[in-house]
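Open question from group meeting: does this chain pack into something compact, or does most of it stay loose? Before anyone orders reagents, we agreed to write out a predicted structure and look at it together. Recording both the input and the output here so the notebook holds the full record.
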Amino acid sequence: QVQLQESGPGLVKPSQTLSLTCTVSGAPITSNGYFWSWIRQPPGKGLEWMGAMDSGGSIYYSPSLKSRTSISRDRSKNQFTLQLRAVTPEDTAVYYCGAGKVLHTTIFDYRGQGTQVTVSS
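Structure tokens returned:
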């Protein structure tokens, strides 16, 4: 069974860089056909797709976040990471990592439980 687990700081100060890691077990992140994705849900709002990496390492970003977002992976640890630069309080959200065979979706075959990130001074 594929399992994903997000980790990272729960509190980030404005203007800093948010870094989150998704640790995957049960399948290699190089598995053909899968997109390894990040989404988020701000309080009182819907899910927002942020970006994804496919099994070959190609990366796809939401146009609205592309200038501030980086996604990378560590195959030796079977992890992929999200960096969001220059955060503001509007970036406060529950952040999820997920895996599925469709790009640009907030519905996944497998998803982590999510991690709360608050941006505040």
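Observations to bring back to the group:
The radius of gyration is 13 Å.
The chain has a mean pLDDT of 96.
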